[in-house]
From TrEMBL:
GO biological process: amino acid transport; transmembrane transport
Membrane topology: Multi-pass membrane protein
Highest taxon of source: Bacteria
Source organism: Acinetobacter larvae
Taxonomic placement: Bacteria, Pseudomonadati, Pseudomonadota, Gammaproteobacteria, Moraxellales
The protein, known as: Amino acid permease
Region (Disordered): 1-20
InterPro entries, alphabetized: AA-permease/SLC12A_dom, Amino_acid_permease_CS
Polar residues bias: start-end ranges: 1-18
């Protein structure tokens, strides 16, 4: 056995013994966890925004670029997660390979990302349910959904993983059906909106290749990158995965390529069948005007709006389910490192950090107020906060991997001794970091997202200051 094998096996056993977390997830759970985190309302409702801003060809290029950035980040994460399959994931990696202050900041930032959006996910799902049942209060649906997600998380890791698998499967099957039906309509195999001839790809260049120039491709990258966020959940779950050395790399490769096909395929279908201006307008006026609903309705599928409404509700619940899991594991990781009281790392009999889950649920309360107080402003800034914090987390993954590999070489090991190798080092972590940095800075150029951007910077500074204070005044 080579040095890396013995070190990895010892680290895995040590982690399991210290934390008590159950290794209950398989490859299929990891893949669906990643797909479920990424496929959401951004695709079903927001995909048209990118098409409207960039044009069909520009949107395809933007999503391909976004997918490549996500793939570079996930390759870096894969090497780290296989070598160190721990709960806390990239927060722990940043602590070890960048610095304790950065690891502390990244962990809290990721907790903030999911906790801030939990309440909005519950509220949005409740509002959609009220369209079916107008006599039932939004608050009642909100409590029902919150209780359901809480029970799924508090019971066991296995139950959480299974629930996420089936919730994600609904979204995946819908996207596959949309792409297949759309391609049949494009090539005239089925009728579309009463047209006598096949639409083919005429809409692609009807208004020039880049009707608004090439610059919007870059200005929409924050939206596109956010669409791929959630893939990093594989790293969070590595500490609770069976045989992470085998399952984590398989899940990363499977998830990224499926996402790229799903996102690009969806954009191709929408762009080919709908004028880009119409796709954009539809994407911003609720479920009934989603580009998915429009295409399904033009093909002749009955109750298209009800179908997509159901799918979006499952997407919201899936995102909340994954978010509560990820945020609670971040809080648990801080407690294990003695940066939060030990009560937050207390486990139930089934190996669940139940105190961390309960506290994270209470952290979602501000998001529940989004519908009652300045809904559009709060939602826009929460979206910006979530996107920006995700970019910071991705940057930390690339930086951690860069430092890890350099340390690996300095210790006298060869890359062949790693169980999973991110290719093209050092270019993959460097390019991943640079592209993420550019994407994050672009948020400052959007006046509507500027308050969220400033708020994130203040939060980051507060994390560093509190970490410095904590260690300066820590009793031995």
């Amino acid at each position: 056995m080579c040095p890396s094998d013995s070190q990895n096996d010892a680290a895995t056993q040590s982690t399991a013994q210290k934390t008590g977390l159950k290794r209950a997830m398989s490859t299929r759970h990891l893949v669906m966890l990643s797909l479920g985190g990424a496929i959401g309302t951004g695709l079903f409702l927001g995909s048209g925004e990118v098409i409207a801003a960039t044009g069909p060809i520009g949107a395809i290029l933007a999503y391909i670029l976004g997918g490549l950035i996500a793939y570079m980040v996930m390759l870096c994460l894969g090497e780290l997660a296989v070598h160190m399959p721990v709960s806390g994931s990239f927060g722990s990696y940043a602590t070890k390979f960048i610095g304790p202050g950065t690891g502390y900041m990244v962990t809290w930032l990721y907790w903030l990302t999911w906790t801030a959006t939990l309440g909005t996910e519950f509220t949005a799902a409740a509002l959609l349910m009220q369209e079916w049942f107008p006599q039932v209060s939004v608050w009642l649906w909100t409590l029902i959904f919150a209780a359901t997600v809480f029970i799924l998380n508090i019971s066991s890791t296995r139950l959480f993983a299974e629930s996420e698998f089936w919730l994600s499967l609904v979204k995946v099957l819908t996207v596959i059906a949309f792409i297949v039906i759309g391609l049949c309509a494009i090539f005239g195999l089925i009728s579309f909106n009463g047209a006598e001839s096949a639409p083919l790809f005429n809409n692609f260049i009807h208004d020039d290749w880049f009707p608004k120039g090439a610059w919007p491709i870059f200005t929409t990258m924050l939206i596109v990158n956010f669409a791929f966020s959630g893939t990093e959940l594989i790293g969070v779950a590595a500490g609770e995965t069976q045989d992470p050395a085998r399952n984590v790399p398989k899940a990363i490769n499977a998830a990224i390529w499926r996402l790229l096909i799903f996102f690009v395929g969806t954009i191709v279908v929408i762009s080919a069948l709908l004028p880009y201006q119409e796709a954009g307008l539809n994407a911003s006026h609720g479920v009934s005007n989603s580009p998915f609903v429009t295409v399904f309705a033009y093909v002749g599928i009955p109750h298209a709006d009800d179908i997509i409404r159901f799918v979006i509700i499952t997407a919201l619940l899936s995102a909340a389910n994954s978010g509560l899991y990820a945020a609670s594991r971040m809080m648990y990781a801080l407690s294990i490192k003695q940066q939060l009281p030990q009560v937050f790392s207390k486990l139930s009999r089934s190996g669940i950090p139940f105190i961390a889950i309960i506290v994270t649920m209470f952290g979602a309360v501000p998001g529940l107020l989004s519908e009652q107080f300045a809904a559009e402003t709060i939602f826009k800034n929460l979206l910006g906060v979530a996107a920006f914090t995700m970019v910071i987390v991705w940057m930390s993954i690339c930086w951690s991997h860069f430092n890890f590999r350099r340390q690996w070489y300095r210790d006298g090991y060869r890359k062949e001794q790693l169980k999973f190798i991110a290719p093209f080092f050092p270019w993959v972590p460097i390019l991943g970091f640079v592209f993420c940095f550019i994407t994050g800075i672009s948020m400052a150029a959007d006046p509507e997202m500027l308050p969220g951007f400033i708020g994130c910077l203040i939060f980051i500074a507060a994390c560093y200051l509190s970490h410095y204070y904590f260690y300066r005044h820590k009793t031995p």
